[in-house]
Design goal:
By secondary structure, this protein is an alpha+beta fold. It has nine helices and 15 strands. α5 packs across α8.
């Protein structure tokens, strides 16, 4: 059905990682240097996988300094010979976006949901329309919504991105957690750690102007509207759009969610990459 069959064909080799013991500052330094949003964690002096840490992990536990207390322990992993079909199922079943690749008990790579979309779905001919994979019950945000309110809504809905509409109900952008991270500076106990991020596949720009104060279990976000930081370069899709076409749009725009509209241009749903890879399972 598709040309690429094994994890080794799409994974990132020579993977960048962090070690334990280490600190939040060291993890941030590695992420900054290599423009990464996720790092596998290995035991110091070895390549034995013991955890995984993402930019979200750093915000979820703002008062912890030790990597071992921030990371997700004993993460799901796959082998280089794992089938793409089984990899897609693992992403969906565990609702995760990053999976380390381990061979002979050593870390040898990383693979992501976007790797499947960009390297599998775009290179094969999937004529099926996206119609059956669209999210019909979804959240859209008003472009005048304050950033702190938009972030809280997404937190409650357990989503990291949402389409944005204006007062005319027109789709004008996509607002994501990455948009927030691209304008923040983390301040914890008088220690300031700049964190700038982008959507998966994009480079990070670490020159920050906006400050977000992270206190104990609380984020204080600037109250300017999401329209000032949202991603405006988007495309809208129709239900008849093929899976391959959708995958190519996601790759070209470095987005993992796209709005779907009807013939009148009215927003009717969203399609995300996690749903898109269900075609492989």
């Amino acid at each position: 059905m598709y040309e690429v069959n094994k994890v080794r064909e799409i994974m990132t080799e020579n993977v960048i990682y962090c070690e334990v013991p280490s600190t939040r500052v060291e993890v941030l330094s590695i992420m900054k240097k290599h423009n990464l949003t996720c790092l596998p964690v290995v035991k110091k002096g070895t390549k034995k996988l013991v955890g995984i840490i993402t930019r979200y992990s750093l915000l979820e536990k703002p008062m912890e300094e030790q990597t071992a207390l921030i990371m997700t322990r004993d993460p799901i992993y796959v082998s280089p010979n794992h089938r793409i079909k089984d990899l897609a199922k693992a992403f969906i079943d565990h609702r995760i976006r990053y999976i380390p690749v381990v061979d002979n008990d050593e870390l040898v790579g990383m693979v992501t949901v976007s790797d499947i979309v960009h390297k599998v779905l775009t290179k094969s001919t999937f004529y099926q329309p996206i119609k059956n994979f669209i999210e019909r019950n979804f959240i859209a945000l008003w472009d005048k919504t304050p950033i702190n309110v938009g972030w809280r809504i997404m937190e409650l809905a357990k989503i990291y991105a949402a389409p944005v509409i204006n007062s005319k109900l027109e789709v004008v952008g996509i607002f994501s957690a990455s948009d927030i991270f691209s304008h923040i500076e983390i301040v914890v106990d008088e220690h300031k750690h700049v964190v700038k991020a982008a959507t998966e596949g994009q480079e990070w720009d670490w020159d920050s102007l906006t400050i977000i104060y992270v206190g104990s279990k609380k984020l204080i976000l600037p109250e300017k509207p999401i329209s000032e930081i949202m991603k405006r370069e988007i495309v809208t899709l129709r239900e008849e759009t093929s899976i391959s076409q959708c995958a190519k749009k996601m790759r070209d725009l470095n987005l993992h969610i796209l709005p779907v509209v009807n013939s009148e241009g009215v927003l009717t749903g969203v399609i995300n990459d996690m749903n898109l890879i269900k075609i492989l399972t």
